[in-house]
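Database export, one record per block. Field names are fixed; values are copied verbatim from the stored entry.
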Amino acid sequence: MILKDKIVIITGAGPGMGQAACRGAAAEGAKVVVSARSVDAINAIAADINAQGGEAIAVPCDVSSDEQCKALVQTAIDTYGRVDGLVNSAYYHPDWNDLISHPIEQVTQALDVIAVGALRMAREVVPHMKKQGKGSIVNISTLATRKPMPGEGGYAMGKSALNQLTRQLAVELGGTGIRVNTALMGWMDGVPLQHFFSSQPDGGDAFRAQRASEIPVGHIPPDHACAQAIYFLLSDYASEITGAALDVNGGDWVAV
């Protein structure tokens, strides 16, 4: 259990990566503060974690609100006395259009939720982590910041700003014991993608096969497997890693 007894806040804990990260972090021994806008969704996740012998609480939060971010972190402190890790997974995805066609309001919302929301959360946890002399922040980004993809422009702009936030905070917080890293996810097999497949005439078989053939590992990586990179970055095994951007996409992007 590489996260045993660590207190970890995870935002954006909806279907897919956020939910997988909550369940997996709990399985690795973390006490998880499950957060998203949907009260019913996070209550269900926390209840399931507790039923499986883990420990979790659910705290609703819209990361576009300063007040709600403050309340989320304060609840974690009031409940557990500290915060060891923060996973910024909350996001907003504009409509699937070319970037030039995206309504500006949707692009600014993506930037506000993804990047500014992560900054809001960091501002709340950093003072507590500084007092502890230790902490880890993991920002969840996307392969679309490496490889521009149709329909992903506004979303990728938000995630690109998040990547820069990682680098900036890693430098500014150097020497405090707080590490800040990014995990860049690619195509992931999970609930959101399965919903997309179910909308296809053949159940998505052709698309799945095509995508799998284009990824070096030969399959679309499962979200729960990709989430393991998050636990590593949160853990003490990554004690000397900060400011890094870890590609978690089955080799879909190979850096040179």
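Remark 1: The CA atoms of residues 41 and 190 lie 16 Å apart.
Remark 2: The chain has nine helices and seven strands.
End of record.
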